[in-house]
Amino acid sequence: LSGPNGKWFSVGLGSPSFAMKDKPYTIVVDGSGNVSERKLGDHDPGTVIAASLKITSNSVKDGVRAVVMTRPFVGKTSDHYTFDPKVTSIPMISASGLAAIYAYHGPKQRTGGTIKFSVLNSPTCICNGGIKGTINGIPFHKDCLPEPKGDLVQQKNPTCWVETYQGGLSCCHHQNILLDKDQTPPEELLTYHMKFRFYFQPYTEATPTKPASHTNLLRMYYQTEANAGEYDIPKCSSTTPSEDCVHEITAHFQVKDMMRECPLRKDPSCWGNTTGYEGINLIYAGGHCHAPSCISMELYNADTGMLLCSHYPVYGKTHEVFDELGYLALPPCLWGPETEGLAPPTFIPFNGNLTSIKRNNNTYTHYGEMASWQMRGILTNLPEY
To answer: Are 53 and 37 in contact (CB under 8 A)?
Structure first.
């Protein structure tokens, strides 16, 4: 491992998203040549873990420090990376600092890539993985799913490939500033405050004669853009009237595509043990639709043709709460007790088919558009009638 002498540098192993959120095992060499091992956090320096490296050499030549080290294939703990001889590549991230002490690397001192291995005494297959690239030093990675999951690949949407990417989330990382060429970033930093107000209801456990006062809502999430995280809305023909400029994408998926069978306390997206259940009761559905080009977002039960949820922007007309003049609202879909004026929950089996349709006005090109569904539901069984 080599890097600039007098400044810290590092490498993180096992980072499929090429981001700190993967919390990879990381080797850090500080400006004096001291080596430590860490478990990174999500945008967090992480914690130092038990030493497992053996340093065989540590030298400096022409301003570059080179550290040669060894360690066992199997990690010392679950926080250490375990090398699998059957794995032919390792996604990794690397960074170097502006000073000797391990700290924030800055917006341009980071990158990532994939380490490829060759087989000893045996032919190694070299495959064409397509065009690869980086934006601001960060590897570009998209996993646009083909039909029927989504249709960005079939539409050849520019967001899916680095050679056609025009703008969006991949250009917006910490301390990256987007300005015109003739603009200079101001030196002063803006400070703002946010105030949150939380409401709660006391929880009452179940008794032999009465159910618990509350039921855990499971998080369900799916992107109409099918794993792309965003997409481009291409400009329609200049001869098309603005009111007729409509761009549409669709996705077809099942409830089980959103399932995450893992302990509830481990991650807010976990569903826990789903054994003994047949499906979910849908309680909440909220679509992600950017203003001002959003026309509609619809979710259908593809097995019955039933429209489960639809979003059409509501334009504020007064100065009343939720009706503010000049603002748009996208009211969510809710199900619950009829005594509260809500429609009864909708049961959908795990293998139930869903279809999402998203429409935007495309009078102008729009980058970084999104079409995800944030939903909540309750594990249950098919109702008996």
So the answer is: yes
Q: CB-based contacts of 64: which residues, under 8 Å, 6+ apart?
A: 2, 3, 4, 5
Tens-digit pLDDT profile for the chain (385 aa)? 999 999 999 999 999 888 888 999 999 999 999 999 999 998 889 999 999 999 999 999 999 999 999 999 999 999 999 999 888 889 999 999 989 999 988 877 888 888 888 877 877 777 777 788 888 888 888 889 999 999 999 999 999 999 999 999 988 887 777 788 888 888 888 899 999 999 999 999 999 999 999 988 999 999 999 999 999 999 999 999 999 999 999 999 999 999 999 998 888 899 999 999 999 999 999 999 887 789 999 999 999 999 999 999 888 999 998 889 988 888 999 999 899 999 999 899 999 999 999 999 999 999 999 999 999 999 999 876 5
> How far is residue 103's CA from residue 124's CA, in Å, rounded to a whole number?
39
DSSP 254-281: EGGGG---S-TTT-TT-----TT--EEE
Write the CA distances from 287 to 31, 174, 313, 373, integer angstroms: 48, 26, 11, 5
The dihedral region occupied by 137, where left means phi > 0, alpha psi between -120 and 50, and beta the remainder, is left
Start-to-end CA distance of the chain, whole Å, equals: 67
Q: Any alpha helices (H) in the chain, and if so which ranges?
A: 152-155
Is the distance from CB of 93 to CB of 84 less than 8 angstroms?
Answer: no
Exposure class string for 309-339: b at 16+ Cβ within 10 A, else e: bebebeeeeeeeeeeeeeeeebeebbbeeee
Of residues 184, 92, 185, the one with CA closest to residue 141: 92
How is residue 319 annotated by DSSP?
S
Closest to 2 measured CA to CA, from 48, 69, 50, 51: 69
Phi, psi dihedrals of residue 243, rounded to the nearest 5°:
-70, -15
